[in-house]
């Protein structure tokens, strides 16, 4: 067969839940199909580089298993039998069931459940407009950023940091708790440039030799959940050796003297015992950053997915404040730029329609919510009807057995709007097919970088699929709220209005012509040289864990959840971990797979082949003790359940630590249950969230 002719190159943004939000060039082929995707070379963050899984997007968008028609369940829930129905009937059915739920229990019995399958502001956030208009239950988005953002914010008082492109101008790039090669490849682009052009050193702090650690000049493989101990020792050495920047500390931080006193006992020897690193490794790291003003700390999410993760983030970001790295270009720290974009989403989200007394339910505790836990329901009515968009909770949420039990409830109506027959869609009453990003208009902003980027519709969707925006608008008509503010507009009209009310007078057309807008604040603002985000302008070594106006603070209706009182007054290691014990001698982390994006791409053969299959990485010493052979089937379990999968013997993990890279579909596992059977949904300090890498387990051959 001849290769279809290249018609044009379209411009877009990657919609996936990845900090990089790459600017894309998309080959549009004859017949309206898609060819290769590439990173935009003229975008100075993307810099022409994207990950392999998105470069192969043609495989996903033209996948033979894509959902193309609405399907209604026949027979048992999860039984796998469906009948095709028309779109009008499907939408009528959702509206009918939502109205019935409302009549029986009030509007809070309906729970629109969403997350970040697409990061587009219109297609992702429009569901809020519907829920506000109808006073349906709200959602506390706790699953991903909670501990990381909480830990950062209590220190800096704002969610921004040193320009991510400055990594290229750094002399020491510290990549801490993020497997950037796999999860945000562009960090490596800029770090590699710094190494090539400036001889910069790359330090990686992680719990196993992942692809990023293999690129490190200094590779620090510590025990899970011990990062704060490492951070404290680094700061101890700074005060001990005179590499702390006392002038900076006096001007820019709240209590340097208190910190110094507190750290007196946090020696490298103390930290070595906790972290499992050697004192030489800790001293070498401290010496490197002590002599390198341009040390850039790129802090990821991974180390915050521990029950002490917020405290660990705060401790790690305190390091550049002690050494004064913040003052230099190519120095300082970065986690997320979520504060810089200034986009006013209130029309898209229907903020004017919001009733603040409506309850919020914790996304991570969907299992408890759906199985009727009164506390998880805020003592309110049961949830009896759901629309699930952009997320796959039966696979990605913790405490999977409880999640599935909830979704299977006979008196619960679940509509899932999806691109594929996911683990969640399989348990639904109704499945409706969704467009992909190249088939609808949307706008994106990059949490891990600095651009607002347009993703206009580039190709026609298959005949039977509809966008999230369409579903929200059509349901609004059927539920009697289509005349409320914000409804009845096209995606382009919403984007145009949002840009114009957000200080971008050129609106949609100007963005289309320019492709992206660079929102990076100036050097002094980004480096907090005019002060940190608190009234006194000082970085807080003494965080106010409960009182700050953190972006991750739960809505009032949820109350202040989470054991915030147990977090330390100053940076410290806190033993808030699911530590191993005699019955559970191992610690399991469920780290991201390079070829997947959460549960997405686990359906494409290119990604599946490269990942192999669900496997458990085990150190040979542990394997020998348990009588486990490479390639054999093992059982790994804890109080929440057990999972069978293949053993992979490797010295990339430490003895006592197991790593599973995912997320594979539940149906890819031998017993049809995924790795999240083992993860817990107990709320993590300070305000809730899921500690996906903090699990004690046993192992059996
Ligand atoms: N290829 C790919 N890319 C992705 C994703 C994916 O699933 N696959 N997911 C996307 C999403 S939603 C997000 S939020 C980001 C997350 O991206 P990251 O910021 O990279 O965070 P994590 O993926 O949770 O984990 C990163 C690393 O932290 C390690 N880790 C676990 N516990 C500890 C610890 O206690 N200390 C330290 N130092 N390290 C620890 C993990 O083993 C892993 O190697 O990536 C996004 N990009
Ligand atoms: N064990 C373990 N579990 C984890 C994690 C971990 O590290 N370990 N990471 C956690 C993290 S950080 C996160 S953020 C969550 C993410 O969990 P999810 O938000 O569920 O993750 P995704 O797989 O990115 O997206 C879910 C679905 O959105 C669909 N989708 C994409 N675009 C659209 C669209 O335009 N419309 C509609 N209707 N659907 C669309 C995709 O087909 C996909 O099935 O998972 C969490 N779960
Ligand atoms: S998944 Fe991340 S690295 Fe890959 S193209 Fe999308 S934004 Fe870029
Ligand atoms: Mo995430």
From TrEMBL:
Q: Sorted alphabetically, which keywords does the UniProt record give?
A: Iron, Iron-sulfur, Metal-binding
Where the record annotates domain 4Fe-4S Mo/W bis-MGD-type, the positions are: 7-65
**Matching Gene3D superfamilies:** 2.40.40.20, 3.40.50.740, ADC-like domains (2.20.25.90), Dimethylsulfoxide Reductase, domain 2 (3.40.228.10), Formate dehydrogenase/DMSO reductase (3.30.2070.10)
Under InterPro entries, the record lists: Asp_de-COase-like_dom_sf, MoPterin_dinucl-bd_dom, Mopterin_OxRdtase, Mopterin_OxRdtase_4Fe-4S_dom, Prok_Mopterin_Oxidored, YoaE_C
- PROSITE patterns referenced in this protein's UniProt entry, alphabetically: 4FE4S_MOW_BIS_MGD
Q: Which domain of life is it from?
A: Bacteria
Q: Which family does it belong to?
A: Belongs to the prokaryotic molybdopterin-containing oxidoreductase family.
Query: What protein name is recorded for this chain?
Result: Molybdopterin oxidoreductase family protein
Q: Which organism is this protein's natural source? A: Jiella sonneratiae
